[in-house]
Amino acid sequence: MEFCKHYCEEPMNEIEKPLKSSNMHEVVQEWYANYVEVEQETLFELILAANYMDIKPLLDLTCATVASMIKGKTPEDIRKTFNIVNDFTPEEEAQVREENKWCEEA
What we know:
Layout: H1 2-9, H2 30-35, H3 40-52, H4 56-70, H5 75-82, H6 90-99, H7 101-105
Helix pairs in contact: 3-4
């Protein structure tokens, strides 16, 4: 409710894609950047709620926040940030990296 009330008073700037920065304070107005400075669990709950209630600006903001947490990080850093267990063997990981080398070159 707080988000919707504020959005009516001060609409959020459109979020540029791709993100121009991993710092949300450089992407949206201060109030919105502060709004998503929450624990990961809360952030993901906000994403689910925004999606379920079809609140596109909130969904855009929360998804952009997750994207900012990934931007510029290595796969290992991303796993650490989101507590993802790497269940690939070194051989499987090497194969996946080779098959998707084009991704890392972009």
